[in-house]
Amino acid sequence: MKTAGGARMRARAAMRAELTAVVVTLALEHGYEQTTVDDICAAAEISRSTFFRYFPTKEDAVLSGLADAGERLREALVARPDEEPAWTALRHALGSLIDQYDGHEEKTRRLTRLIVTTPALAAKHREKNARWRELLRPEIARRLRIDSADVADPRPDAVVAAALGCVEATLAAWTAAENPRPLPEILERAMSVVR
């Protein structure tokens, strides 16, 4: 039996997805800085207070599609074979993240370019990556056979930061090239330098 709370959660998730689609469409058509919350509200036919009930900022609305990507990445990392070295396991787990970008080629590239080149969005994206480090650190520490509670040991953080840096470099290269290589190939090139 489905509960009323479940229905409310689904309705809330649907409204968040709809608002994100509106924000992304407007930002891609008119530019991120030129798109105001009032523009978004007019296009979505909602009030400003309704918008802010769903998102604290315009940046959060644009990036909400990536909200659960860190958790999915952590799950993919944990699912890798135990004997796999930390760097290799992280490279394979990142495939799930890259697949998210690699789906709808042109629109995804345009949105990614917008995120990479817009200072407010790039900063919010880096903030998200900092949360991902916290999610991934325990599993990387386990694979390195070190105590994840030892915050004075920089190795797990270094591995995660290097991998996320490779993802950032991959996305920047993918959006900058006129005819880019496939994303998995670009990521492999970036990560093989650090390996």
From TrEMBL:
This is AcrR family transcriptional regulator. The keyword Protease does not apply. InterPro entries: Homeodomain-like_sf, HTH-type_TetR-like_transc_reg, HTH_TetR, MftR_C. Residues 36-55 bind DNA. It holds the Pfam family TetR_C_14. It comes from Amycolatopsis jiangsuensis. The keyword Transcription applies. GO terms for molecular function: DNA-binding transcription factor activity; transcription cis-regulatory region binding. Residues 13-73 form the HTH tetR-type domain. Keywords: DNA-binding, Transcription, Transcription regulation.
